[in-house]
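Morning F.,

Quick status update on the modeling queue. The single chain you submitted on Monday has been processed. Sequence for confirmation:
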Amino acid sequence: MENTGKWALITGGTSGIGKELAKLFAKDGYNLLIVARDQGELDSTAAELGSSGTQVKTIAKDLSKMEEAKALCDEVNLPIDVLVNDAGQGVYGLFTDNELERELGIIHLNICSTVILTKHFLKEMVSRGEGKILNLGSVAGKLPGPWQAVYHATKAFVLSFTTAVREEVKDSGVTLTALMPGATDTDFFNKAGMQESKVVQDKDALSNAADVAKDGYEALMAGKDRVIAGFKNKLEVNAANLMPDSAVAHQMYEQQKPVEQGQQHN
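Structure tokens below.
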């Protein structure tokens, strides 16, 4: 594929869905600006993706720190044609037990950095009259999630925010798309300390990151408002829409509780 000269900025682009999205952009002739915390991982990803002739630049930032998210905006001196806000984290456990600072870091990463980057690059895109933004939501954003209460709530924010801003800029030539995967086979669960959860134990039930990325990429390029990746996840969200939130929360409690926890929660 001939290089288009266009640039895609992808946060969390060294692993999981973000890395699979980077591969799709490279295949279509985009140059890549990949952002993650670990410079070593950035270097190896850049070497892998750059072998096809794609220009790959990297910036190491911890986007759970607001000053680093703002510094990223200041440091990028390229016209960004596509922004992918993929970086995100969760933490597993009961809200009363989890560490406050860890949960605030997740809010900063999943919500605040998404707002900071979207505001900065959206303004540039609107002034040029073209551009695309893909925000990583989750089916979790439609399902109150005991054992991951803060993570699910951050994804509800991302979905609402993306949908509202999309409407505000609908006549500008810029589109915003929300990708909503379900449980996906990435390092997310390991980082969240979630290996004991029932939902993670059944590996066959986890989506493939490359399949999720393909669904998101196609929706982004088509200018769609959102896409739920995977037929099973579409069914789950549709079923949840017909149930009271309290019933959905109870169902999610049972799905996500630790496997060794035998007692029933009523």
